[in-house]
UniProtKB/TrEMBL annotation, chains A, B:
Gene3D superfamilies, per database record: Luciferase-like domain (3.20.20.30)
NCBIfam families: FMN_nitrolo
Database matches in InterPro entries: Diverse_substr_monoxygenases, Luciferase-like_dom, Luciferase-like_sf, NTA_MOA
Entry protein name: LLM class flavin-dependent oxidoreductase
Family that this chain belongs to: Belongs to the NtaA/SnaA/DszA monooxygenase family.
Pfam families tied to this protein: Bac_luciferase
Length: 447, 447
């Protein structure tokens, strides 16, 4: 009998959880997402459970009262702390767990991102990760000197160049460039400090970085893109992908597609971990799990529910909430609106039923059941080559994490699917990934 | 007898200290500036001493081997951690001390700065401060899509607008906007969340911020600019100014000038603290202090010394090091080169003597003497209305801080000039500044 495949586990800890009504749950402190103590508890609990990483998604458009009534999000998913500052603070009160957050390539400068994540990698002793995204919301664009978001092609072209600049800056200092030779007065070897001299279509960046090579060589790179250009960025550079497929067949196809692209970049299939997101409602019985799910869904106000559809489909507040989902008149993001409409037609959903589906787990995959049900599903995905692990998106925090640790983790461990001790000190070691080689190493010898 | 005026104390903790040869000092770990433990020790020591704040200056141009020989800085002042991530980490291991760092208005977006500093203010329970600067170095410009730095007028115009946008975003959420009403399902009062809708020459920013009003109302604003436009930004918005005058007469004039500008913005003279920078070499005797000073200066290699002049005067490596300072052929920053040349002529300095002056304290004011000498000088400045406190820039860290705490602080306290306990929990409270009022408060009632 072969030993089962080990899975990687991440924990998404944005807001008070992924459910739109999380803050109304009896267990929730509705003000917690502005408190460091909330995140400290979550990160330390996830670390005690030996999870690979905590993750903070990001996106910073907030709609206000001058927008259509169906647009206004009055949930807890409006207030939070900024991810990079929060992860940095958490680095000081944790020792092993990875610290990953999103930063957009659309409204940042590559020098800033390279520098800040390199610094986090040093602060944490090799536990930093950057989730590479592009920004597609107009609400976010309006905070950065634009009226509309950038076109898909343009922002992905910018993203691809952005990532190459950041990786280049992370190679500025060779590992052995610092000499620290007090006697001679030579602080570092000038020949091992490199200017990048990047001059491309979107960026002109000379370098070098003012931060020495980091414990992980470079921070872990994460990607989530499902479309063509995102897949290529992932195949070329990502260490981890938070994929979003909702069913096993799509997940298998996605996994095969992405892993199949690695060879052309000289990468092995094991050099990239695919960790689909999942929101879990677990109970000791199926009835208990279903009750937890129904309780939260009953707490979603219609106005709030509509706002979860607005981002893709536009304002639906003029239609009957328990009637069929209409063809959207002014979809905000056409491709996403089309997907949602197809889902509604296929499952014959009302507007209320559609927004509940989205509001329950921010549009991600949802599992409701006993520990055995949940782990059966996870194991099936891993054995079918649909996932290397999972990115947990608890409906309510910290409750959903505590329940996972109490109920699901023992079942995963009983089946030998998840570690009981960390393998190493860095996130890279715990994910089983190799240290990258600096592009300049051996250059002088060759030249 | 009136009680003496209480001073404010800040501690600059960039690199391994402000002296160019700090890393060669016998006490120094030359790799410390890349280690969190180094800064944690410094911040916790400064907090135990009840200082107001630790401060990280910033500027991110690093010259490389393709530049003139006289340009290359091979000191420890090339490697560090990124200030915002570092202060965020320190927020988790300190409880009272202020956490202040520089961020440039030239190469950042106001939304990012507003958001990150608001987050740091929450993480730290009200201890964040932002030092507002513009960037004037070409080396930095070349990391941000430019060949040359921006003109003075343009970058100060941008800075002034930048600060107004950031202050506006910090008012997004009124204090009582969050309602957290689980029963009704109303998370916040939509009428108390405000879009800024800024549309100016340099920035178009809608808002609102996704972070609620911070413990200090808004983070502390710090400024250091000495020229006209910087003074106006300081008079309008700054809570603290790190002024750089080198002698008492200039400092008195600067103090009178800046404090005199406050009234036109409706501000009291006490609402802004002027804290000139000072680098202290202290000994139990004057001889001991002078030996410490001489030891470090003897460790500055000529090539390194020249690089400290390059940033202003250009490459002087072709001139005899012990000869007179020449009229620079290609000054990098004309106004600064002119000041340095005037200093050299006035004091009849050689190139070596000029760079030693700069290299000993990064161009700031230097005090060498016994605790009584040092405190006499400080007291004279405070009583002459030249300073409200001081920003300490130790030559070597952590040694310079430890010596200050051991030798100078008792003398300051013996004269009743510095606290023995913190007055409050926030930086604002400890500086004795009042809480700002949100611009929207009472607006609805008036309208």
């Amino acid at each position: 009998m072969s030993s089962p495949k080990q899975i990687s586990l991440g924990l998404s800890m944005r807001y008070l959880g992924y459910h739109a009504a999380a803050w109304r749950h009896p267990s929730a402190d509705p003000d917690a997402a502005s408190k460091f103590s909330h995140y400290r508890y979550i990160a330390q609990t996830a670390e005690a459970a030996k999870m690979d990483m905590v993750f903070l998604a990001d996106g910073i458009g907030l709609r206000t009262k001058d927008e259509p009534p169906g647009a206004l999000c009055r949930s807890h998913q409006t207030l939070e702390l900024e991810p990079l500052t929060l992860l940095s603070a958490l680095s000081a009160v944790t020792s092993h767990i990875g610290l990953v957050s999103t930063a957009s390539t659309t409204y940042n400068e590559p020098y800033h991102i390279a520098r800040k994540w390199a610094s986090l990698d040093h602060l944490s002793g090799g536990r930093a990760g950057w989730n590479i995204v592009t920004s597609w919301s107009d609400a976010e664009a309006r905070n950065f000197n634009r009226d509309k978001h950038m076109d898909y092609d343009l922002r992905y072209e910018r993203a691809a160049e952005f990532v190459e600049v950041v990786k280049g800056l992370w190679d500025s200092w060779e590992e052995d460039a610092p000499l620290f030779d007090k006697a001679s007065g030579i602080f570092f070897d000038q020949s091992k400090l490199h200017a990048l001299n990047h001059d491309g279509k979107h960026f002109k960046v000379k370098g070098p970085l003012t931060i020495k090579r980091t414990p992980q060589g470079r921070p872990i790179l994460v990607q989530a893109g499902a479309a063509e250009q995102g897949l290529e960025i992932a195949a070329r550079s990502a260490d981890v992908v938070y994929a979003a497929p909702l069913d096993l067949e799509s997940a298998k196809a996605y996994y095969a597609n992405l892993k199949g692209r690695l060879a052309k970049y000289g990468r092995s299939r094991d050099s990239l971990k695919i960790m689909p997101g999942v929101t879990i409602f677990v109970g000791r019985t199926r009835e208990e799990a279903r009750e937890k799910f129904d309780l939260l869904n009953s707490l979603v106000e219609p106005q709030l529910g509509l706002s979860y559809l607005y981002g893709q489909m536009g304002d639906l507040s003029a239609y009957p909430i328990d009637g069929p989902v209409p063809e959207p008149e002014n979809p905000v993001v056409k491709s996403m609106a089309k997907n949602l409409l197809a889902l509604a037609r296929r499952e014959n959903l009302t507007i209320r039923q559609l927004y509940t589906t989205i509001a329950a787990g921010f549009g991600g995959r949802i599992l409701v059941g006993t520990p055995k049900d949940i782990v059966d599903d996870m194991q099936a995905w891993v054995e079918a080559d649909a996932a290397d692990g999972f990115n947990l998106c608890p409906p309510v925090l910290p409750l959903g994490l505590d329940e996972f640790v109490e109920l699901v983790l023992p079942e995963l461990r009983a089946r030998g699917m998840f570690r009981t001790e960390y393998a190493g000190q860095t996130l890279r070691e715990n994910l089983g990934l190799t240290q990258p080689v600096n592009r300049y190493v051996g250059e002088a010898a060759v030249a």
